[in-house]
Amino acid sequence: MLRPDLKKRSTLISIVGGVSGLFLLLFVLTPPVWTLKHGTISLVRWPKSGQQTFEVGPGQANWVPIKTVSHHVINAIVVAEDARFYEHFGLDLREIRSSIEFNMEQKRYARGASTITQQVVKMAFLGSDKNLLRKTREALGALLLEQLLDKEQILEWYINLVEFGDGVFGIKAAAVHFFETTPELLTIQDGAHLALVLPSPNRWSKGLRQKELTTFGHKRYSQIIEEMYKQGFITEPLRKSALATGDFGRPIEGYEPEQEANEGGIYIDLPGNEPPPFGHKEQKRRPKADITHPLKRAAPRP
């Protein structure tokens, strides 16, 4: 029988060993998200044209700083992909719970709960396999990434990594490929069209490619615009304009313009030269004119 002092020392050694082993395991499982803080990463992707290797990061040819991207695109992506992005710490526990309940009802994996932060980790370091190990690594990486980068930096990585269609990676390529323009000139409509194909662009981009929304596209586009309005990202005139012209110049299915819309003129979305900072709420008096510049965020809806 061990003496009491030796038994205590043995217990302490076991605890220290166990904790050290746990930290080592967590370190091994956690993707190297710290590399996103400084520098470029190499990615291998497999579009239909075959394997492609990309260098992605600040300073690379296709990299776009988030401050030069139309805020309408950023807002559309956030409301479509991660409505509580500015509130969570990398994982959205409320969405995870809802997803688990829904999947149990469906008796299959029918709905995910990945945040934008988790998607950045997956796109940068992990594959798309749906298994517990990958999701665990993704979650660990997201928790750490939120400590290393601020929300704007995470979004910047997202818009430069995400795929908008087969072989169309990043917001710069998407702006050129689908709209023949630059990221800073994308409109509310453009932003909603790009956001609605996420996170499955190869399945959901048919309407975007053909410039004619599918039934699903009409519904998803309308949901994104209504959520942008509800969150205060666009005003009522801009909401009406986006719905009236959302199907590439044609009205969105189910949209019926009100009489006063004709009396007050049509608002056309034009890119703003200097949008307010992210998250800024602002209310301005609109001029009595048919053309107006967009606001980053209008007054919140009641």
Your description of this structure?
This protein is mostly helical and 302 residues long. It has one domain: Penicillin binding protein transpeptidase fold, CATH 1.10.3810. The protein contains 13 helices and six strands. The protein has helices at residues 4-29, 71-81, 93-106, 116-125, 132-148, 151-161, 171-179, 188-196, 201-204, 206-210, 215-230, 236-244, 259-263, and strands spanning 41-45, 52-56, 163-165, 168-169, 268-269, 291-292. It has a two-stranded antiparallel sheet with strand order 1-2. Strand 3 and strand 4 (168-169) form a beta hairpin. Helix 2 crosses helix 11 (215-230) and helix 8 (188-196) packs across helix 11.
Output the CATH topology.
Penicillin binding protein transpeptidase fold
Shape: elongated
- According to CATH, the homologous superfamily is Biosynthetic peptidoglycan transglycosylase-like
Helix content: 40-55%
The total tally of domains equals 1
Number of helical runs? 13
CATH class: Mainly Alpha
Q: Biggest sheet, strands in spatial order?
A: 1-2
For this entry, give a set of tags.
mainly alpha; Penicillin binding protein transpeptidase fold; 302 residues; elongated
Protein topology:
Layout: H1 4-29, E1 41-45, E2 52-56, H2 71-81, H3 93-106, H4 116-125, H5 132-148, H6 151-161, E3 163-165, E4 168-169, H7 171-179, H8 188-196, H9 201-204, H10 206-210, H11 215-230, H12 236-244, H13 259-263, E5 268-269, E6 291-292
Parallel strand pairs: 5-6
Antiparallel strand pairs: 1-2, 3-4
Helix pairs in contact: 2-8, 2-11, 4-5, 4-6, 8-11, 11-12
